[in-house]
Design brief:
Layout (H helix, E strand, L loop, with lengths): L1 E8 L5 E8 L2 H10 L3 E7 L15 H17 L3 H10 L4 H15 L4 H6 L7 H13 L2 H56 L7 H17 L3 H21 L1 H11 L5 H22 L4 H12 L2 H15 L4 H7 L5 H13 L2 H51 L1 H6 L1
Antiparallel strand pairs: 1-2, 1-3
Length: 406
C-alpha cells in the first residue's frame, strides 16, 4: 500500500482534499467516484522528498534475477517459502538478499506471494506487483512470470546496448579533457614566456588561451591536469545519483524532452514501455483502470502519465480506451486508430504488445544510428578543439619575423 493525496469535488460542489492509503492512484480515483465525487488530481506522497534521496528499489537487473528464480521455482513445483529462503542465502547483492528474506518472512506468516511483495513498499516496480497478483488471482502465476521474463529481458538488452555504444564516446571525452588540461598547465605557460620576449602583442586567439591558462592555473595550479578529468567523472556520478531519485529523474527527463532528436527518441521509448506494459497487464486480467495507471507509471514519462490519469475518469464513465486517450491529444493518431480497431476485434492486449515491440524496434534502430554518428562527431569536435589550441600557440610564430626586425 501507499499513501496518496487527492483533490476532488463532492456531489454538492464542495471541495474535497485529503489522503488515502491504497495500492494505486487508479484505485483512489475509483473509490472516490463510487462516493459520487469528481476527482481533480491524485498524487503519491513520499515521506521526505529530496532530489538526491535514494530508496531501496531494486534495479531492473535485480528484478529480472528474482523473476528468473521465481519462474524456475514455480516450474519445478517446489514450495515457495523454503525455496526462496535458500535462494536468498546465495545472493551477493545485499538489496536482493534482503528483499528475498522479507518475502520469505511474509510467506511464513501465511501471506501470498503478491501480499509478500506488497509488504515491501518501493522495492519492486508497481507493474510487477500487479501482474503477480493477477497471476495468483487467475491461477496462472507461471504464465505471468514468463511474460515478465520476456519484458525484463527486452529492457535489459536495450539498456546494455546503449551502455556499450556510449562507452567509447565517454572515454574519448575523458581522455580529451586530460589532454586539454595538460596543454593548458604545461605547454601554454612555456609558449607564454617565449612570446613575452618578443615585445609585441599576441594574436587574439593566443591571448585568450593565455588568459584561460593563467586563470585556471591560479585557481588550481598543477592539479588542473587531474582536476578536469576528475571533475568530469564527478559530474557523471552526480548525474547518476540525481537520476536515482524520482524527482531528479523527472527533472532530467523534462530537460531532455527539449533536446532535438533526443526528445523524439524519449517519447518513442515511453510509448514503447506504455504499450508493452499495458498489453502485459491486460493480458494478465488486471482491471483496465489499474492497468492504465501502472503502465503510464512504467513509461517513465511524466507528461504521458498525467495525460493518462486525466483520461481515467472518462474511461470509468464508460468511454473506450482509444477515445479517452485520443481526447488527451498526446498520443499519435495512428496509435489511437490501431487501439480502436483492436478494441473492435477484441484483441487489445496482443495489439498493444505488438505496438510496443514496433516502437522498441524503431527506437533501437534510431539509437544505433545516433550512437554510430556520436563517436565520430565527438572525435571531430575534440579534434577541432585541440587543433584550435595548437594553432593558437604557433600563430605568433608566423609574425615572428616582423617582431624581430622592429
Amino acid at each position: 500500500m501507499a499513501l496518496f493525496r487527492y483533490r476532488a469535488v463532492d456531489q454538492y460542489g464542495e471541495p474535497l482534499e485529503g489522503t488515502m492509503d491504497e495500492s494505486t492512484a487508479a484505485r483512489v480515483t475509483a473509490t472516490l467516484q463510487e462516493q459520487g465525487a469528481q476527482v481533480n488530481s491524485v498524487e503519491r506522497l513520499t515521506n521526505k522528498p529530496s532530489i538526491f534521496k535514494t530508496d531501496r528499489a531494486l534495479s531492473w537487473s535485480d528484478v529480472a534475477l528474482v523473476n528468473d528464480q521465481l519462474l524456475a521455482i514455480t516450474r519445478s513445483g517446489a514450495p515457495l517459502e523454503p525455496a526462496i529462503g535458500a535462494l536468498a542465502q546465495d545472493m551477493h547483492s545485499r538489496r536482493v538478499r534482503q528483499a528475498l528474506t522479507d518475502i520469505e518472512a511474509s510467506l511464513s506468516n501465511g501471506k501470498s506471494l503478491g501480499e509478500a511483495i506488497d509488504s515491501q513498499p518501493n522495492t519492486f516496480p508497481s507493474i510487477y506487483l500487479s501482474m503477480v497478483r493477477a497471476g495468483e488471482r487467475t491461477g496462472n502465476l507461471q504464465g505471468v512470470l514468463e511474460l515478465l521474463n520476456r519484458h525484463t529481458t527486452r529492457i535489459l538488452d536495450l539498456r546494455s546496448h546503449l551502455i556499450a555504444q556510449s562507452a567509447y564516446p565517454m572515454m574519448v571525452m575523458i581522455t580529451a579533457a586530460f589532454v586539454v588540461s595538460f596543454l593548458l598547465v604545461r605547454v601554454v605557460p612555456i609558449f607564454k614566456e617565449i612570446y613575452q620576449g618578443f615585445g609585441s602583442g599576441l594574436p587574439a586567439s593566443t591571448q585568450l588561451l593565455v588568459n584561460v591558462s593563467d586563470t585556471l592555473t591560479a585557481l588550481l595550479g598543477s592539479w588542473l591536469i587531474f582536476a578536469v578529468p576528475v571533475g568530469v567523472l564527478i559530474l557523471i556520478g552526480l548525474a547518476f545519483a540525481f537520476n536515482r531519485s524520482p524527482r531528479g529523474r523527472a527533472l532530467i527527463y523534462r530537460g531532455f524532452l527539449f533536446v532535438p532528436y533526443v526528445g523524439r527518441v524519449l517519447r518513442l521509448t515511453s510509448l514503447s514501455r506504455f504499450s508493452s506494459s499495458l498489453g502485459l497487464l491486460l493480458s494478465s486480467d488486471v482491471p483496465v483502470q489499474e492497468s492504465l495507471d501502472l503502465a503510464a507509471a512504467a513509461s517513465g514519462n511524466v507528461t504521458l502519465r498525467q495525460r493518462v490519469r486525466s483520461a481515467l475518469p472518462s474511461i470509468l464513465s464508460g468511454s473506450r480506451v482509444a477515445e479517452a486517450l485520443k481526447a488527451t491529444t498526446y498520443f499519435p493518431q495512428g496509435f489511437c486508430w490501431l487501439i480502436a480497431n483492436a478494441e473492435d476485434r477484441g484483441d487489445l492486449p496482443t495489439t498493444l504488445i505488438e505496438l510496443g515491440e514496433s516502437y522498441n524496434r524503431e527506437v533501437s534502430e534510431q539509437d544505433r544510428e545516433f550512437l554510430a554518428l556520436l563517436a565520430p562527431i565527438v572525435v571531430v569536435t575534440l579534434g577541432f578543439g585541440i587543433g584550435f589550441i595548437v594553432l593558437s600557440l604557433y600563430l605568433p610564430i608566423f609574425s615572428l619575423g616582423d617582431a624581430i626586425t622592429r
